[in-house]
Design brief:
about 375 residues; Dehydroquinate synthase-like, alpha domain; two-stranded antiparallel sheet; 11 strands; disordered N terminus
Length: about 375
C-alpha cells in the first residue's frame, strides 16, 4: 500500500457530556492507537473492498501493542442488520472483549453506524472510533454518536446514542472513492449549507468541479465546514431533544425512498431528492421564498445529483414516512426552512399539502 503523505490535521471539538475531537487531514491513520490507550485488543469492522486498508490498520495496532481482531462485514446497507451485529458480538465474546477494549469502524456511513451500535451494546458500552473512508461517513455518520441498524420496518429504527472516543477523517481515503459515492456524500454537505452555513453553497456554486475533486482545497474546506455544523449541533443536543432535529432536513422523504428502493439507492442520492421535497414543502407552507427553493435545485443539479423520483410512488412513500422515527404519534414532522440558515419544524401538515409538494419532485 502506498504510504500517505502526512499534513497537519484540523481538530474540531465536539463538546458535551462525552467530548471528543474530529481530526481532518491527510495521513491520519497513525493517530488511531492514541485514541485506544489502555486497550489490549480492538475489533476492526470493515467490508471486503477495504481489506487492504484493514490490514494496514491492523499492522499499526500491532506495532502499538494492541491485538487487532479483524471482522469482515457485508458491504454498505447489507451490513446494517441485527444479524450482522449479533455475529460481531459473538466474535467479541469468543475473544474475551472487556470494558477496556475497543471497536473500530473502518468504512463509510453504514460500517460506522454498525460499529458504533456494536460498541454501544457490548458490556453496555465500550470505546469505539470511526475511521471514515467516504465523504458521507466523514460529514454525517461518524460525527454525533448516533448509531444503529436497519429493520424491515425502516432505516435506523434500532440504535443508540454512543459518542466515539474520537473520529479520523483521512481525506486521502477519498482519492480512491468512486466518483458517484463522493458526489452522493456532497448532498449532506449541501444540507449543512442550507440549514446553517451558506458559505458552503457559495463554494460549490463558485466551482462545482473543484467540489468534486478529492484532492482540492475546496473539498477539505467543505468537509471541515460541514463537520463544524454538525459538531455545533450535537454538542448542544446529543439525544435529538431539540436542536439536533434540524440535521434531518430532507431526510424524512429520503428515508422513505431508501426503504422503497430496498436500500439500493445511495443515501446521498435519496437525501438530494429529499432536499428538493423539503424546500418545496417549505414554500407551499408559506415559510420559504421560492428563489431559495430554486437554489436547492440549481446547486444539487450542478453536482449531478438526482432531483426527482417516480411520480406514482407517492402513496408508498407517505406510508413509509408515517413510521419514520421523527414522527410523533400519528403526526408527521418535517424540518423546513423559514430562510437560508433558518430551519424550523412543520408538525402535522395536511396530506394535501404533502402531496402538493411532491409534485416538485415527481419525475
Amino acid at each position: 500500500m502506498t504510504e500517505l503523505t502526512v499534513t497537519g490535521p484540523t481538530r474540531i471539538d465536539v463538546t458535551g457530556d462525552a467530548p471528543y475531537q474530529v481530526l481532518v487531514g491527510r495521513g491520519l491513520l497513525g493517530e488511531l492507537p492514541g485514541l485506544l490507550a489502555g486497550a489490549a485488543q480492538a475489533a476492526l469492522l470493515y467490508a471486503e473492498p477495504l481489506k487492504a486498508h484493514a490490514e494496514h490498520l491492523a499492522g499499526l495496532l500491532e506495532e502499538a501493542g494492541i491485538r487487532p481482531l479483524p471482522i469482515e462485514v457485508p458491504d454498505a446497507e447489507d451490513g446494517k442488520s441485527i444479524g450482522v451485529a449479533a455475529g460481531c458480538w459473538d466474535a467479541l465474546g469468543a475473544n474475551n472483549f472487556t470494558r477496556t477494549d475497543a471497536v473500530i469502524g473502518l468504512g463509510g456511513g453504514a460500517v460506522t453506524d454498525l460499529a458504533g451500535f456494536v460498541a454501544s451494546a457490548w458490556l453496555r458500552g465500550v470505546r469505539w472510533v470511526p475511521v471514515s473512508t467516504s465523504l458521507l461517513g466523514m460529514v454525517d455518520a461518524a460525527v454525533g454518536g448516533k448509531t444503529g441498524v436497519n429493520t424491515a420496518a425502516g432505516k435506523n429504527l434500532v440504535g443508540a446514542f454512543h459518542p466515539p472516543a474520537g473520529v479520523l477523517c483521512d481525506l486521502a481515503m477519498l482519492d480512491t472513492l468512486p466518483h458517484a459515492d463522493l458526489v452522493a456524500g456532497l448532498a449532506e454537505v449541501v444540507k449543512c449549507g442550507f440549514i446553517a452555513d451558506p458559505a458552503i453553497l457559495d463554494l460549490i456554486e463558485a466551482d462545482p468541479a473543484a467540489a468534486q475533486d478529492p484532492a482540492s482545497a475546496q473539498v477539505r474546506e467543505l468537509v471541515e465546514r460541514a463537520i463544524r455544523v454538525k459538531a455545533h449541533v450535537v454538542s448542544n443536543d446529543l439525544r435529538e431533544s431539540g436542536l439536533r432535529e434540524i440535521l434531518n432536513y430532507g431526510h424524512t422523504l429520503a428515508h422513505a425512498i431508501e426503504k422503497a428502493e430496498h436500500y439500493r439507492w445511495r443515501h446521498g442520492h435519496a437525501v438530494s431528492v429529499g432536499l428538493i421535497y423539503a424546500s418545496a414543502l417549505s414554500v407551499r407552507a408559506g415559510r420559504l421564498a421560492p428563489e431559495i427553493a430554486a437554489r436547492h435545485r440549481a446547486v444539487l443539479t450542478s453536482l449531478g445529483l438526482p432531483v426527482s423520483y417516480e411520480a406514482d410512488a407517492w402513496p408508498a412513500l407517505l406510508a413509509a414516512m408515517r413510521v419514520d422515527k421523527k414522527a410523533r404519534g400519528s403526526k408527521l414532522r418535517f424540518v423546513v426552512l423559514d430562510d437560508l440558515g433558518a430551519p424550523s419544524i412543520l408538525a402535522g401538515p395536511a396530506d394535501e399539502l404533502l402531496e402538493s409538494a411532491y409534485a416538485e419532485v415527481a419525475g
